[in-house]
Amino acid sequence: MKITLHSLATEVYVGRDLLNGTLLREFCGEQKVVIIADAVVRDLYGAKLAEILEAPLLTIPSGERAKTTETQEQLMGELFKMGIGKDTTLIALGGGVTTDLVGFIASIYMRGVVLILIPTTLLAMVDAAIGGKTALDTPFGKNLIGTIYHPKAVFIDLETLNTLPQKEVFNGFAEILKMGLIHDAAICDAISSEEELFGMILQAIKAKIAIVEQDPTEQGLRRILNFGHTVGHALETIADYQLAHGEAVAIGSLAEAHLSMQLGYLAEKDFAQIQKLYHNFSLQLPKAYNRDRLLQAMVYDKKRAKGVTRFVLIDRIGHALPFAGVFCRPVALNELEPSLKWMEKCYGSV
Amino acid sequence: MKITLHSLATEVYVGRDLLNGTLLREFCGEQKVVIIADAVVRDLYGAKLAEILEAPLLTIPSGERAKTTETQEQLMGELFKMGIGKDTTLIALGGGVTTDLVGFIASIYMRGVVLILIPTTLLAMVDAAIGGKTALDTPFGKNLIGTIYHPKAVFIDLETLNTLPQKEVFNGFAEILKMGLIHDAAICDAISSEEELFGMILQAIKAKIAIVEQDPTEQGLRRILNFGHTVGHALETIADYQLAHGEAVAIGSLAEAHLSMQLGYLAEKDFAQIQKLYHNFSLQLPKAYNRDRLLQAMVYDKKRAKGVTRFVLIDRIGHALPFAGVFCRPVALNELEPSLKWMEKCYGSV
User: Fold this and answer.
1) pLDDT the model gives residue A281
2) Which pTM was predicted?
């Protein structure tokens, strides 16, 4: 089973048994290939794939904390030492940390080498690996360094979900749900009625491709994908990445849905409906949370303009507000406070 | 006096008295601006421009050795600490090191901020600031990290050439001459007949824009701009950047013209004519030069494919060979040796 989607310069293959290598080998042709995976994914799939493709395999540490300049430099040093040239294809095999980091390296190594992404987590399949964003975290905030660089191909092998921990499934669901809230109510319906995962994955990928194709460089519409992330990224920063991205985005989506209601855009019953969608999630603010730290971390939000943080807002399930093509709106501190209070009350540790 | 050229996403202004700020101020509008210059240019033009634009001014060390990951990280750290957001314009004011480095930062800071280049050296005016290439050097070689990222505008103020040391004028001439050799014989004629500098600068910029527009991402034609740089970059690497880029490119252009002759593409009389074009240059191989080091450094040439270094070659003054659209050709060691011997004989220190 294999479905092919097209997004800008990228072919997206979704199917089962794609990691056996036949299609990948064909795709790489005679190009030199280097595979990069974290330690966990290396043992699960990396070593075997390296054997099939007869390619060297480099390992990075696991976890969001690896998505730094230090790992990037170390990895690039290894590539240089190996004499890896511009005629090389880099394959990123793993979750969002790996696809973000290796994508960034591919975009700057000798001014760009061919990139293939093989996401092995639900979150990377529906979000990180789609749309060409690459990123590193900095002490100032998440994803503050990066490029927009489109992979030649994305191979999504659903078999890899069989080895995914339940916690990681929730991480991916947080992004699928977000996509439902901002763009496609049918996704939320599918989640409510507990439909099969495969259909939802495909819907989420198609929705993301549609948005990215309309606004590849995030001048407007693409910003809606950032719903839930204004608060979410800040939470991750103050938790020093001890909070999973999905959990942060789930809390962030709820807080920003509350904000949408608070500002009069979203009906109360819609907000109640949204809360129900998250009933399976077990959410808690990080221990290091306090209001000042959150506000300080939000200063580094990339949507910020003229010194004011801007939020993506929704007016119903499945629809983000266009705000005259800007797709976000400045929110003053006093406008934001009731939603932060609500969030602290619901998910605070005290 | 002001001439406006268009290249991809970039407006290129060439004129005098552009640094007085009127046009620049208009261009930046209400955007927040940060100016980055090296210590020398800061004193010459930076401080005044910062005053006119009411913008903060950051300083980097002078010289090619500053074009490293370390400077990049330090500078980005300063920008983050200042709370600089994605709604900021970075202005790079200076030579090729500054435009390459700040261009790279602009391309990765929050996934890209608006960039304006103000080249103040002849080399940066005719080459580094045109075409969107950004770069950092690494211990493995020159420009091995980088992106292709187009500035919104390039302001070329010819007045700044008045403060340029003579050595720096030769640096720029090496790239103008290279452009003549690969693309526009009229440039070489102009140099032979000692025509006015201004016309040559304009010709060189127009030629570069024409090439870059045809092949923005260097899939073919744009490679011809790399003539003289296969040997040149390797020389800079082994000299640890104690050799000026222009000198390296001049020696490289001569060696690669010799190679073009050696391989039977270029007539002997044309090569003799080319040698004459460089009679004003005082050229010498770096002290650390030896054949093995050069060959080792050439391993990191970005045109290398399947383990063999490829060269841009010319078949007459003003024309690089297309090689079926690849615009470079693999050259085996035994093919290269006579030209290296010739280069060592002419420019060796012994």
Assistant:
1) 92
2) 0.95
Out of A80, A109, A305, name the one closest to residue B87 (CB).
A305
> B288-331: per-residue pLDDT in tens?
999 999 999 999 999 999 999 999 999 999 999 999 999 999 99
The residues of chain A scoring below 70 in pLDDT are: 350
pLDDT at B66: 93
Report ipTM (2 d.p.): 0.94
Nearest residue in chain B measured CA to CA from A110: B144
**Tens digits of residue pLDDT in B3-44:** 888 888 899 999 998 988 788 988 888 889 999 999 999 999
Q: What radius of gyration do chain B's Cα atoms show?
A: 20
Contacts of B295 in chain A (CB under 8 A): none
Find the CB nearest B147 among A111, A144, A299.
A111
Q: Which chain B residues are closer than 8 Å to A109 by Cβ?
A: 144-145
